[in-house]
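It is worth pausing here to work through a concrete case rather than discussing structure prediction in the abstract. The textbook approach is simple: state the sequence, then state the predicted structure, then interpret. We follow exactly that order.
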Amino acid sequence: MNVMPETAAGKYDYKGKTYYFCNPRCLERFRANPEQFLNPGGSSRQPAAPSPAAATVPYTCPMHPEVRQMGPGTCPKCGMALEPEVVSLEEEENPELVDMTRRFWTASALTVPIVVLGMIELNPLAQAILATPVVIWAGWPILERGWASVLNRSLNMFTLISIGTITAYVYSCVAVLEGLPVYFETAAVITALVLLGQVLELRARSRTGAAIKALLGLVPKTARRIESDGSERDVPLEQIQVGDKLRVRPGEKIPVDGIVLEGYSSVDESMISGEPIPVEKTEGMKVIGGTINGTGGLVIRAERVGHDMLLSQIVAMVAQAQRSRAPIQRLADVVSSYFVPAVLIIAIATFIIWFVFSGAENRLSIAILNTVAVLIIACPCALGLATPMSIMVGIGRGATAGVLIRNAEALEIMERVDTLVVDKTGTLTEGKPVVATIVGTSGMSEDEVLRLAASLEQASEHPLAGGIVRSAAARRLQLSSASNVRAIAGKGVEGGVEGRSIAVGNRLLLEAKGIDAGPFDKQAEALRNDGQTVMFVVIDGTIAGLIGVTDPIKESTPETIRKLHEARIRIVMLTGDNRTTAAAVAKKLGIDEVQAEVLPDTKVEVVKRLQHEGHVVAMAGDGINDAPALAQADVGIAMGTGTDVAMKTAEITLIKGDLRGILRARTLSRATMKNIRQNLFLAFVYNVLGIPIAAGVLYPFIGLLLSPMIASAAMTFSSVSVITNALRLRRTKMGS
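Step two, the predicted structure:
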């Protein structure tokens, strides 16, 4: 359709070309996704996780994540259909599901008349004709995987099913010629039910990626960019670059990570952090792409775009973690390695016992049916899926609640943690210290003490330094440049300001320089008892004053520590603060043990000591100096408000950055491990009970023999039940 510019209802510029529209609704649809209309044969790009053609996407096995290939296929170890390594937001057609569904319905249509003919024992030749396409064509993927398992020397579920199905089919073909009873309905029903199981399993497995799809769906496709001339236009998200100014209108999703330049609003970050209360945003504050703006308008500067966005990093981390293996999986791996050979031995023994010792006239038929039942009912697949399905769903659930888990091992260990080591600043406290007290000598005013200290500290990244600099800015003090600035780990900082030697630090700094605190000592101790961190200001080797800084305790900290104690977790606080200050904070919060005046390199030693005492230790921190201790701990927990180094070192990251996330992580760990144990119990009990019953152990007592068709139905639903149970984790209540 051609639209004349002079009669157009609207226009839109895209990639240097102007498009005209006859209807405003058409304009809005085009603006939302131009590529959908300009390139209808292609697929629109998703900024966080593009979805290329299936042949170029890496696929992996949910049971054996080490198996990887480009494009769809089957696992050479277990025979399961591979799935995309990274979930895409686009609803792509699963070729495996389509094929299995077509084969199932074809097999079902042919199996019904076979069963009817078998029940009335009529026309064995017609049964053979109908059963052949069911077993050979519809069941071909099953037979193919069974043969591949033999070639790869990795016997699995499809080995057993193939042997059982072919045994029943070949015997029946021979029986037609010999005039013996046939069991084509057994072979056909087994094939149809196995195909049904594959269809149900594939559908259930597709829902395990729902958490990642939900995260991907948070990002809008377009952003409203403010051009250099002040004009505004909507552009596709992939065109946004770092530094672009963007307008976010009320109710819209924030397109990228950025900094607020103008405006005031409340932003709903619950989909990222798990916190239901909107967060107020004003000039200078950070915003996260994918969160929802409230009633106010914002102008932001793009800071992170595309794969650098927090949301994209979350998706990548979750996808990788879902493929990791928990230590509990080793038990299932050991059992599975012996499982199929053991079932084959039991099947052979079943045939020999029934054929040799039964004494019945139709003992060959009974021996074959019981052997087939043993082969079909055994389900190593349920055993193999028990752990990875729960891990996949559990880690995805954590991501939607602001708990990012880097690997399955951390998720397993978290439920056994009995000691939590926390860094005070930024973990228990806000991490934004404020100056509460300034004391100067008779010849030095409070403002001058603060100005000189802030001039030196403005080059430091320490939170306490930030508090001093902010206080000086609030008083509108004119700062000077500092020279030869040198940080002294765990003690303070020194350098030159206006030609004078300045040092700002704690008592350890005074001791290192051989300076006596004198009359300032009592004042400093009084401030410490009040919970303030005291820093001495030394000018040319003499104390010129002191500054008392307080770091407000996070509102959520006291309640969280109480709940952690209820969970029988011991809290150990590490801090570089003076012992008096640390004791005051610990007393207020009810912390069990305090390690004060701890230097960065000794935090690791504290964690090692606790581990040596037999404790399972989790370490929560947010700074670069916490990274070694986070790595040493059994579970390292990084606050999302902290440094990138801490988050890369830790096994768990709490996006919101407060201790409530630790409670969520523990709740999730306990729920996931409980779910895994349920799955393993179901799989073990099913096989332990099912195989002997199929072999006929109950026949001497109650005359029960298990039909291979019933065995096939039981096997089919055993795998589906494990996946369905794992999916219940999506409804886990994480608490507040």
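Step three, interpretation. The longest helix spans residues 660-695. The two ends are 55 Å apart (CA to CA).
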